[in-house]
Design goal:
Layout (H helix, E strand, L loop, with lengths): L3 E6 L7 H14 L3 E5 L2 H7 L2 E4 L26 H13 L4 E6 L1 H14 L3 E5 L15 H22 L2 E6 L6 H10 L3 E3 L7 H13 L4 E6 L6 H12 L5 E5 L11 H19 L5 E6 L2 E6 H4 L8 H10 L2
Parallel strand pairs: 1-2, 1-4, 4-5, 5-10, 6-8, 6-9, 7-8
Antiparallel strand pairs: 2-3, 10-11
Helix pairs in contact: 1-9, 2-3, 5-6, 6-11
Bound molecules: 6-O-phosphono-beta-D-fructofuranose.
Length: 323
């Protein structure tokens, strides 16, 4: 029987994590369960840095980006010694079930730990990258794409005024979700993704054509694009087309902060409540996400077995909608 739930955030932070922590704490309280917040993800488990969280402690955080219980990427947790320490600390704090909010790395750690120590876990997808299978959206993606879109719209204004070419690099180390969605939504002229081969000669041809037509150009580049990101691609272009007035903007961590959108807050609340109720009902080793606006429960291993593939329909739009 679960009496005390540990909640932690791990990996890159994402807007909506606080709303989710709030939902976990308040749902648990309504079921007369206690919640402990584990600070700095797996590192806090290893060090035993944990705080009790009562419903009042999570007041006034639903609208805040980041995570009040901090986050980290832990290498030590993936060692036998690290996992053992984590297990002992969880026992010392009388925690008998965990809610893990994070991405692929978090879930891989959870799955291994859960199998080794038979410890109940429920995962909630929290990453701006939207790259997990078993859910249409991850927490923070909606906020991140809106933040990114606002920035691109502003760059478009200045690009047009100066007849410039801009390479705008957006986050996505392994996946092009942010680039694809914001590229289509901003009306970008080209979108470079890790999932598709970047054809530099074709890009140069396109840029030459647009230059002849006197048009400014926006190229959205996912940071993990296999051609090397915005700086490298811009250098290649400068070599061939030195007369173009080329600029590079790397949007970076601005995409990870900020107040979560309404969509992210509602999803955070639904997933937080579902995770607590799943744990209480005896479930473990699952991720709770949303598919077609319904809660969807997926084994953690399947959620991170492969990266969630990009939407084929949006991919088809690239050629149709650009230039
Ligand atoms: O996983 C989310 C993410 O924002 C990626 O898109 C990005 O590549 C990475 O985190 C950046 O990580 P860090 O904040 O550790 O530099």
């Amino acid at each position: 029987m679960i009496k005390k739930i540990g909640v932690f955030t791990s990996g890159g932070d994402a807007p909506g994590m606080n709303a989710c922590i709030r939902a976990v704490v308040r749902c648990a309280a309504s079921h007369k369960k206690e919640v402990t917040g584990i600070l700095h993800g797996f590192d806090g488990m290893i060090k035993g840095t944990m705080i009790k969280l009562f419903p009042n402690d999570v007041s006034n955080i639903i609208h805040r980006g980041g995570t009040i219980i901090k986050t980290a990427r832990s290498k030590e947790f993936m060692t036998h010694v690290g996992m053992r320490k984590a297990y002992e600390n969880l026992k010392r704090h009388h925690i008998d079930g965990l809610v893990a909010i994070g991405g692929e790395g978090t879930f891989k750690g959870c799955s291994e730990f859960s199998q080794k120590y038979d410890f109940p876990f429920i995962g909630i997808p929290g990453t701006i990258d939207n790259d997990l299978c078993g859910t249409d959206y991850t927490l923070g993606f909606d906020t991140a794409i809106n933040t990114t879109l606002e920035a691109i719209d502003k760059i478009k204004d200045t690009a047009a005024s100066h007849d410039r070419l801009f390479f705008v690099e957006v986050m996505g180390r392994d996946t092009g979700y942010i680039a694809l969605w914001t590229g289509i939504a901003s009306g970008a002229d080209e979108i470079l993704l890790p999932e598709t081969k970047t054809d530099i000669p074709a890009l140069i041809k396109l840029l030459e054509q647009r230059q002849k037509q006197g048009k400014s150009t926006i190229v959205i580049v996912a940071e993990g694009d296999e051609a090397g990101g915005a700086l490298k691609t811009a250098d290649e272009v400068r070599k061939k087309l030195p007369e173009l007035d080329t600029r590079v903007t790397i949007l970076g961590h601005i995409q990870r902060g900020g107040s979560p959108t309404c969509f992210d807050r509602i999803m955070a609340t639904r997933l937080g409540v579902a995770a607590v109720e799943l744990l209480i009902s005896g479930e473990s080793g699952k991720m709770v996400g949303m598919i077609n606006n319904q809660l969807a429960i997926t084994p953690l291993e399947s959620a991170c077995k492969a990266r969630s593939p990009l939407d084929k329909e949006l991919l088809r739009f690239i050629k149709m909608m650009t230039s």
